[in-house]
Amino acid sequence: MRGCMIKIRPYKPEDSQSILSWCGDERAFYQWSAGVLGNYPITPTEFAFVEKLMPFTAFDETGIIGFFTLRQPGETAEELRLGFVIVKPDMRGKGYGKAMLRLGIKFAFDHGAKRVSLGVFENNPSAYYCYKSVGFNDITLDNTETYCILGEEWKCKELILNKTKAFDVIP
């Protein structure tokens, strides 16, 4: 990672062109979106859906390098859920994803969450191991959520990070 630290800020609609360009093919798009945003390829207008969530853009001195959302999955703000996590392709594997996740997790905990959760497809091991590297743990569920995407069954792993465990990974 470069010497400059990354930062996060609220998402701006003009960020959408860059973010959507990072999903270079249909499979990568669905690994990222699970089809929630619509069918590949989506337009910036369709991507505006994320504005209903808490969307964040990560950046450094070179510009936009990542994106994620937070949302409240239940009635209380004790849990916030990460979603639509993506890093610019030429920044992947260099620590930017981990740095961005740490900032998102810190934001969640600083705003009252006691845990942060997320889902990741089993066929996306690089994302899975990135989440594990910042402290997320697998949750064993009785019923694994399965999506039918591109004529295949994709299983979703559920992960969680409790605030009490986060001190090891969050500065």
On the 0-100 scale, what is the average pLDDT? 93
Helix/strand order, N-terminal first: EHHHEEEHEHEEEH
Task: Please indicate the percent range of residues in DSSP E strands (runs of 2 or more).
Answer: 25-35%
End-to-end gap = 17 Å
How is this structure best described in words?
Strands 1, 2, 3, 4, 5, 6, 7 and 8 form an 8-stranded mixed β-sheet that branches. The protein is globular, with a radius of gyration of 15 Å. It has 171 residues and is α+β, with helices and mostly antiparallel strands. A hairpin with a 2-residue loop joins strand 7 (146-149) and strand 8. It has helices at residues 16-21, 26-33, 44-47, 96-110, 125-133, 163-166; strands at 7-10, 54-60, 63-71, 79-87, 115-121, 137-139, 146-149, 152-162.
Brief summary of the model shown:
The protein is of the alpha+beta class and 171 residues long. The chain has helices spanning 16-21, 26-33, 44-47, 96-110, 125-133, 163-166; strands at residues 7-10, 54-60, 63-71, 79-87, 115-121, 137-139, 146-149, 152-162. The longest helix is centred in the middle third of the chain and has 15 residues, at 96-110.
Looking at this protein, list some descriptive labels.
171 residues; alpha+beta; eight-stranded mixed sheet; 6 helices; 32% strand
